[in-house]
Structures
1.
Amino acid sequence: MRVNDSLQDNDSYFFAELKRLKRIIETLRENPNCIVLLDEILRGTNSDDKQAGTIGLIRQLIDYQAIGVVATHDLAVCQLTDEFPKILSNQCFEVDIKDNALHFDYQLRKGICQNKSAYFLMRQMEILSV
C-alpha cells in the first residue's frame, strides 16, 4: 500500500492511508474473496493510536473472514494470536549478528522475531556512539 502526502488533494500521509484502508474494507464487503496484504499500517500516528487501530482493523478483517498478511513490529499486535489461535499465526524472519554483520537465512519461522537489529545497525552506522 503506497501512500504519500498530497498537497494538491490536501491529504496528509495518515489521511491518505486511512482512505486506502477504507477502500480495502469496502472491497471486502463487496467481494470477500480478496487477499489482503498490509505492511506496518498507521505509521502516521502515535504508538498507542497505531496499536489500537491496527488491532481494531485486524478484528474487522477477522469478522469479514479475510485472508491475508499483516506485517508489524508491534509486539502487542502479535498477542492477538492468544485470542484467535485458530485464525491468526505469527510468522517471522530471523537475523543473526555474527562477525559484526547481519546474516539472513530468509527462512519463514513460526513465532515472533526475537532479534533486535535496529540498535546494532544504529551503532554500526555511527548514529549512536554507545
2.
Amino acid sequence: MKKGKLYLKHNTLSEDIPLVLAMRAMGMTSDKEIAELIAGKDPFYLELLLPTLEEGAASNTFTQRAALDYIGPKVKGMGRRVGAARRPPYEEALDALANIIICHVPVNGSDFRAKCVYMAMMARRVLDAVSNDNKTDDLDYLGNKRLELAGQLIALLFEDLFKRFNSDLKLNVDKVLKKPNLAREFDAYNQLLCHGDLITQGLMRAISTGNWSLKRFKMDRAGVTHILSRLSYISALGMMTRISSQFEKTRKVSGPRALQPSQWGMLCPADTPEGELCGLVKNLALMTHITTNDEEEPIKRVAYALG
C-alpha cells in the first residue's frame, strides 16, 4: 500500500501494478464487482478502497485485454532463456498471472475467479491492518509458518533444470533446422545425447556443494545440504530434525529467537546452538508429524459446509 492505494508487487514484475488493473487483467472488469469482493457493503472499507478504484479509473484501462497489454511490458520474463523470442505483451502477462503470481491457487482454463477471490482477501487483510493494529498477524506464530522440505527443494531444482534443458534443446534444434543445406538427415536423438546430462549434473552439483541456485525463481542459497553426522543415534536424529530459519543471524532481534507458546509440542525448547544462531536453528520434537500433500476435496467440502 502506497499513499492509501493498493498495489500488486511481485519479483517477476519490474514495478508495482495497481491492484484494480491486476484484477481486471484476470477478467474482473467491473469496479462494482471488485469493490464488493474486497469491501462488501461496509462503507468504512469502501472509503479506504476509494483511492485504489480512482487510480484504476484514471488509467483509462477498462478491459481485460487493455490491462494485459499494460502489465505485459513490465513482466521480466524470468523463465525465458537467452535468445528465445519474446511473446506478445498480453501473452506474457497472462502466463505470469496464471503460472507465476500466486501460483498455489489453481487456474481452471481461463477462469481466474479463485485467484481474484484470494487477492481480494489479501487486500481486505491489508485494509484491516491499516485501520486496526490489533488485526496484524504475529510473524512468529508457528501456524503462519511452513517448512520447506527436501522433496520440495529438489522438485524446484528439477523444474528449473528441466525447463532449461527444454529451452536449450529447442534453441539447438532451431539452429540446425535453419541451415539451408543439411549435410545429413536431422537426428533428434543425437541432440538429446548432447544435453542429456544437464539435469543429472545440475542435481549432483547442488547436492554435493549445498548451493541451491535457481535463476527462474531468483533463489540463491548456500549450505542447504550437509554431511550427516553418525557419531551417535542422537546426533544423527538431531541433524535430520533440524530446522534452519531464513532470518539473518547478524541482526540483534529477540522476536524470532524467543520461545512461542504455539511451538509447544512441535519444537524442542532446549535443543538449539549457542551464539548468534541461538533460537534461529531449532529441532522438531520427537513426536512431531509433518503433513504433506493432503487431499483437497474433503477439505473443500468441510470449508463449503462451514460457509
